[in-house]
Structure formats: structure tokens, C-alpha cells
Specification:
Blueprint: H1 5-19, E1 26-30, H2 35-47, E2 51-55, H3 62-72, E3 77-81, E4 85-86, H4 91-100, E5 106-113, H5 129-140, E6 144-146, E7 154-158, H6 159-165, H7 178-188, E8 192-203, H8 212-243, H9 246-260, E9 270-273, H10 282-296, E10 301-305, E11 320-321, H11 325-328, E12 336-338, H12 344-354, E13 358-362, H13 375-381, E14 387-390, H14 393-403, E15 408-409, E16 431-436, H15 444-457, E17 462-467, E18 480-484, H16 489-497, E19 501-504, H17 513-520, E20 524-528, E21 544-546, H18 552-564, H19 566-579, H20 585-597, H21 599-602, H22 616-625, H23 632-643, H24 645-652, H25 663-668
Parallel strand pairs: 1-2, 5-8, 9-10, 9-12, 10-11, 12-13, 13-14, 14-15, 16-17, 16-19, 17-18, 19-20, 20-21
Antiparallel strand pairs: 3-7, 4-8, 5-7, 6-8
Helix pairs in contact: 7-8, 15-18
Length: about 675
Amino acid sequence: MYNSPEWAARCIQCAILSNAESIKNIYVIDDNSEQYTENLLISIARENDKIIYIRNSTNVGFVNSANLGLKKSSAKYVLLLNSDCLLTENAIAKLISHVEVSNRRIGLVSPISNNSPIISYRILSGYNYITMNELFGQLFLGESFDACTIVGNCLLMTRECINDVGYLNEIYGKGYGEETDYQFAAAEKGYEAIIAIDTYVFHKGEASFESGEDISEHRKVNSTLFFTRWGDQYIKKMKKYKKNDPIKYIDSKIRSYFKKSSSKFPNYDVVYYLPGIGQTFGGIHNVVEIVNELIIRNINAAIVVPSISQYFETLLFEFIVIEEEYQLFNITTNCIVATAWNTVYPCSSFSTKTGIPLVYYVQGFESYFYNGERYGRIEKTFSIVDEVVVISDWLENMVVSRFNKSSTKLVNGFNEHLFHPCVSSEHRQKIVTIVLRGDSAKGDWVLLDLLKLLIIKNMGIQVNVVYFRDIEFPENDENIVKIFGPLKKKSISQILQSTDIFVDASLHEGFGMFPIEAMACGAVVIVSDSGGVSEFIKDEINGIIVKEVNKPEEYLKKIQEILADEEKHQRLRDAALRTVKEYYIDKTINKHIDFIRSFPASIVRGKKNVHKYFSHEAFSRELQNSKLSYNMSALEELDQIKRSFSYRLIDKMKKNIYIHRFYSIARKKIKKLYKLSVK
């Protein structure tokens, strides 16, 4: 393992949860990771007697580290496992069974995964890596294929093979190609390598590599090395492999299975409905993180979306993309969760017809969105849901005081192994970070004016400005670092780890993920009095809350105070680090699990009435009254209408609602103006 503590923790957790009976010892080889990862691995090892922690004094790469583990173990079977690989239920036992029931001399066994050379099979729509393993176990139990290239991210080796062939060839350095080299060396000794197609695992890939350019160059060198040694043998094996390709066989059998099956999806414990997918929306990240964590804990969760756009984060599942309303009724779940006001209607329709509970997961006070223009429309959604879940006391109070609707609070959590302080002793320039999110309600104009004041004051600090849209910045200087997004969460964590002061000026926040992640990374936060942040920030105790939210001078004053008082800075930082421990995802997710498991008992099922606002006639009248131009906001509005179930259903019912035929052209030529025609 080398750095990437968020994956190291998951890897060990999944191995123990799913394969405890098959594991004698887990040798954790730390390839000289940074201090946080080292401390984490030591802590994990202390909690489990089976874990043996070994740390390399220098970074020697995957091959040398793997060999160290092979030498330490004396077990009959050894599993080499990358830190970004997640095992599934009884994966080890199934791999071993392929050796023990065979009359062939099997020395090496690999499973199928979502991300491995040649033997990858994608996660199917509506499935996750655990349900994929269940599907493969059901369809292919006991089946295997001869391997063309074995894969090292999850590789079972027999002790007999190790003793006879030796260890991985260390000429491959950090890794790539060493397992296939070993496979051909083993073949010369009479050992066969197979792919167990009844076993499926998750592999992220390249979690420990820091630079894509380095990976590419490293692969070229190792590929040349491999073909110099085994090129002729590999080509012969590949020709034979193509005639008996396991992936083609798997795909054919799965297609045949679904043709005969009454449903293409497994049964779910809970399904979340997102209005879309995008990298810049915190609420979307939160739901995806919840679903990932639920899946790891064997809660079968899924996400339904009308469409997918740019998204960088790792998914342990595949989205269900619903293009027509009837497709939603192919899903069987104990509960459906609307995650935004405009997902309540399709969820309500589904809930009404199936009798399953409808939960409204409120992550922000949405009546304030769109400058309040849809206040009444959003208010009506609360009257048709069975249960409301909120993420802060502030939201709970807003929902009950405005709409007389009680709710359950399930606070947000964050991955503490991704957002954590970076240990550094170097003396450097002080850094202030702000994030411009392309929304006036997020206080972008306040932050830009603050940026101007910081330039004028010339305080000798560096200002990181993360932004997601084209912005005409105030007069610049050399101490402003502009970082254009969207960014992966790992990149954001690295920025926050170098930050001394984080400033947020949102006018309203349901919770505030940026501030709590900044606190977890060791920054002192200065935030506006935006509502939900009071869940975890106490003014002058673990952060600063600015009451006059629209006055940039107030934020500047607080920045100056903290920079001038190192003792105060340290006191606020230490208190913040203590506070955030209550919001680790490992803690908060348990409350989600308890809530999900309570659905059948706590909510009475049965047919429900749909609010009159959501009738097709009402929706039709609203569309007919719309007078929109093709500016950016109108395009977004039209996009929502086109994606909505209501629009498509009206169209199917011949309600004479049509969108101008130039819709698709206008999307591509956004600068041109077209008129929306609603007949």
C-alpha cells in the first residue's frame, strides 16, 4: 500500500467483512506512505489480531512489496491484493475451490472485475460490485477459463507454485506486467493460470500512482520488457484465448439470462432519485457517497437518474438511467427517496402505484433556490411525501415552521481518510482559499469583492480561488492562484490541506460540505451565518461565523484577526479537528442504515393521493403559460422539462404539448436565440 488512505481503509474493511473465515493473516505492506496513512494502518492493525503491519523504510514499489508479503507468509494459499481492490462475499473461498476441485495443476487464479486488463466486465445498470458477484455466482458457479494474462490486483497463488517458481521478478520495479511474467514463468514449470468467472471484485485502478504521465511512461518500459522476454509465447496464447474468450461467453449468457428474467434489476433496500449527475453539485456527491457506503455494508442501494453528465468520482455501482416513466416500474425496492423537489413527482407516482414509502431527502431549503421564484411550487411537494429527512437542525426548523412538516435528522458525513490534515513542518506563505460556485446564492459576488480587498491590502498571503465558470476577476496580482474546476474530491482535499483559512459566504446552506471538509483538513473556517453551518460551527469556538453576510469588509476583518493571532488560529483549528470527528462517514452512515431498516415498520404502506398540482392537466397549463427565451437559464429550465416524466407522459397521451424542433440545435449553438413554442 502506498498512500491513498481512503482506499487502504476500504480494502481492509471489505476483506474482513466478506472473507473473515478464509483469512488466516493479512500482511499490510506499507511502501513508505506519508504519515497519515502510516498512522491509519497502524491503528487498523491494532484493532485486529489477524493484521500484521510491515513498513518499508523507502518506497520500493509494488513488486518488491508483494515479494516481502509472499516471503512472510507460509500459508497454503496467498492472495495478492491491491489496496484499491474490494473483495466480495466468499471471494477467497471461491478462488481456492477452483484449485481444489480441479485435477489440473493450477498455480494462479484471478477473478473477474470491473477494471482489469482483458478480463474486465462492466458493472451493469442498477447493479453494484456486490450484486454483480451474486449474479456471477448464480450464473457461472464453478466455471473457469484459461487465462491469457493473469491480473495482479487480486491474484490467488498456491504455496506449491511459489516454492517451485519463486517470487515476482523485481526488474518490473513499481509494477505492471510482473504478474503476467510470473504466469509464463510458472507455465514453464507446469503450472496453469485460470480466470474464475464465478467471482467478481471491484478494482479502482492506479490509486497509488500520482501522475498519469509517469504511469504511461512506466507502462511503455515494462511492456517492452515483457515482450522481449515472452512475446512469442504471449502471441500464441492470445490467439488461443480469442477462440475461447471468457468475456464473450459471460456477456452472451448474461444477455440470455435477462431475456428470460422478469426483471433486469435486483431487489433494493432503497433507491435514491437524483435530478441529474454533475461534478459541481455537493448534494449529488453526498448521495453518491451514501450509496457507496451503504453498498459496502451490504445494504442494496441504487440511484435513478434521468441523464448522466460529467462526474469524476469513483462509483461502486452503476446508475439506472430512466428515459421513460414506465421504466421506473421495473424496479422493486422497500423505499424510494426523492433528493430534490423536482424528483418528488416521479417518486410520488411510483410510490402511489406500488404502495412503497416515499421519503423526501432535503439537503437545502429549496424554496430559496431560483431566487425564490418557485417557492409555492416547492412548498406543495411536502404535502405528498410520507417522510422528510433533513441534514441539519436549521433545515428541520425551517421545514416545520414554514410547512408544518416534521422530519428526521440525518447529518452529512465525509470520508475522514480523504479529508484530513497534511503533516508538514515547512514554513510557507499563509494561504486563504475561496470557492466560487457560479451562484449568487453562494455569495460569489461577496467573495469576489473580498478578493479585491485582499489585493488592495497586499497582505503578503496567497489566495487560492477555485471556480467552475468563466469569471472576469478583479485586478490580479502574483499572489492569487486561480484553479479552474470542476475538480475531483481528491484534488479539493489537497488544496484544503494546504489552506490556513477557508472563507465561505453563502446566503443559505442546508449543511455546508466545503466548510466541514476544510475544517477536517486543518483550515480555520470563516463562514457566513447561512443556517446549516451552525450544525457544526460554533462562533469563536471552532470557527468564525459572520453575521453581516453581505459585507466583504467583515470577512476581511476576521481574516486579519486570525492572521495576526497565531494562538487563536491554533485554538480554533484544534477545536475544529475535535468537532469533525462526529461527522466521519463511518459514524453517520450507521444512522442512515437504521433509518432504512425502519421503513417497513415505521411507515404505513398503501395507495396515496397525488396532489392536484401534479396532475397532467395542471402541468400542461403551466407549460402553456410559459414564455421562455433560449438564454442559459431557459435552456436549463427546458432541459428539466424535456427530462421530466410529466412532459414525456403528456406527450405520449397526445396532450398537444411540443417543444420547438430546434431544441437540439439550440443546445449546441447556445449563443443563438430561439423562441420556445408551446402549442
